[in-house]
Amino acid sequence: MSEKKGLARAAEIYAKSEQYARELKNQGKKIAGYYCCYVPLEMLAAVDYVPVRILGDMNENITSADTYLPTVMCFFYRSCLDLAMKGKYDYLDAFFGAHSCDGAERVSYVWRSYLKYACNFNIDIPHTVHPPAIEYFKNQLEAMKETIEEKTGQKISDERLAAAITLYNKQRGLVRELYALRKADPPPISGTEVLQVLVAIMYMPPEEGNALLAEILEEVKNRPVTAQKKPRLLITGCLIDNISFTKLIEDSGFNVVMDDTAIGSRSFGHDVAVTGDPLGSLAERYLDKIVCPRTFRETGKNRAEDLENRFGYLRKFVEDWKADGVYLNIIRNCDPHGYEIPELKYYFEEMVNVPVLAIEQDYSTASLEPLRTRFQAFAENIE
Amino acid sequence: MEEKKAKKRTSAKTLQTAREAGYFGKKMLANTRTAVEEGRPVAWSMVDWWLGVPICKAMGVEMVFPENWSAFCAASRTAEPNLEYSEMDGFPNTLCGYARNTLGYARKLKDNNYVIPPDSPGGGLPKPNFLLGCGAVCDARYKWFQAMGRYMDVPVWMLEFPQVGYKEYYLPGNKEKTIKFLVDELKAFVAFLENLLNKKLDMNKLSELVQIMFQTNKIAHEVDLLRKAVPSPMVSQDFWAVMTAHFYLADDLEAQAFYQRVYDEVKHRVDNKIGAIPNEKYRMLFAELPPWHTLGFFDEMAEKHGIAFVFESWNYHVPSPLTAEERHGISDPLELLARFSYHKFHEMAPVAREHDIDPIIFVAPYLNYVKEYRGDGLMGHPLLSCRPATYTLMHVRNLLMEKFKVPSVIVEGDIIDLRVFNEEEAYTKMDAFIETMDYHRELRKKAGLDW
Where are the domains of chain B? Predict the structure, then answer.
């Protein structure tokens, strides 16, 4: 790969992520694939795995997965398994699945039934943040730690874990700094560029990812702002991992200024507390601090309280990033987000007075173009 | 032109007890309406594999299950208006059919000031005091009830329900830590109920209900064991009718007595070598949730091809009873509940380990069933709107073929939405599948498999 810097380097790694991972492998690094944002990367980094986020490919027709998965399920996870069965993740040395949703859980199990790794663990993630659930999740992490230690022959000492926590806290802090720059109007960095940066660092050893983020921050702070003022959009819901989609949204008349997805702010929104109980801190951060509809929050006394418990953090995003509209992205067949549609629309449109566009899409670049007119109409309505 | 024979929608059922079983669904619905009239609390609950429902019953709460009611709506073909209501309110049509049916109904209930609309199927569900979701099996199991807040404005409790892979199951200490988690969560649930209902849980009453539930499920398990007989004494059409008694009312003595009668009737058939269908030629398994609206399909298959659907639907079946060793020294009913529900979901871990496959739920059981029940084939029923019962069907199909040379036929449909079940295509596929089963019987013989 070339010696580009900053955003150009991020764009290149994003575009050639598989090649980049294989180069790391050729350099002697061990690569650990993981699902969603609930697998504590600190534990992987503590034994010198390079954690690589498993993503699908909106450009690739799903063919091989048909043998293993039905068509009536999450198109993203179908795509992930499709790539794996085609050998595109054959560089992995370890695999970490997670019960972040039904799709992730079942595909984790199907995956490991056919593809075997020296080190493998599936985390069962509770659905509440009750104190016993945090304790259970901590026990899961303890079991994951012991499995990694046994399979790699390396001890994950508290010191190594603390060092990895510090490393990833730094990464999360740098990403949040980048996100904070997007509060400006117009933002100095596009949603498309941010997505390239996030995917790139999800393929990089964390030290290198942090160095790249530092370069990018300097670059973005110091470059002339060329973007136009446009309606400012918050994206929430299912992840977007392909810039064709963010480009389409931005070309339709928006500046994407903030997100609430598993690739974006959910992965980088909160640090792990530095305490004498690193596993406990990891459990708190990964289960409680990540807010995703897959985790049930107490309903409170009535519907209004329930809505605030579920969506209050998004109201704050809208206020802090001065979003003019909210796009709720649903990859077809996603239950955790699908059930949210009416209430999330009600919350923003009736209680916060911000319009919402909700779209179910098929996780395929081939089916994106028809969405353009819907985004254009949404932007025009806001203007 | 020869007039085409009209297809039967409902199943004829072969057991007398199966023909009587509809009573229990009606009883649940009637009990909840009576409770509301008498000022007693009512809850809508997700199926939770006996984890939290006995606690509610011990607290004097009448329980009703929207899943069960929605299956009734599907069978009586009365769900469509509710589905349309939920879609009008913005719920995607890709969500669970049961959920959309109930969400549509809940909206009608709210619009009618919580007076049950007179045209409600089965007399309808009254407004609950709370909603009981559950983390087992599917995201819909709690997201659906959370979404119901839009109409019901009552508290929702989410029962935690851990489910792990076989490798994790066998990690030292994992099981006991998980049981402790379940017990801690049940204690929190009890505190929630006591606060909501302003009364204390009677632990003696709960213990009594747990013992009734264990006994009912023991009988149900024994019925399952009897079904291994050749010819099959009880087919899926019968099971889907009688299951209401153990699945929803296992802690009810009337249901228990009923299940004893089911056992007696099935035992009589086994002892006298009476098959549920005449001329049983093929023994098939069914996965996972049936097309409630078209159960007559299975009678047609029996009549036309001699197919007995001998076992089915892992999720509806009881596990084996807890062993004396597992129960030894445990008197806390909360722990007994936790152990039993955990057992249901992890009982097949040894099968998963034997074959080095996952998940334990929905998949490993079929690797067991196919041998125990001598299955010639599997009918997989991918559902448009129930992904958790669908995700692993192709995986099961692959494994049955790879491990046992047992073929599968895949017929797409839905639990509730008539619009996606193509009956003609289903019949055509099954017709063609007969030859496939014949061919694989020969292959199994050559491979030394004993069925």
Answer: 2-447
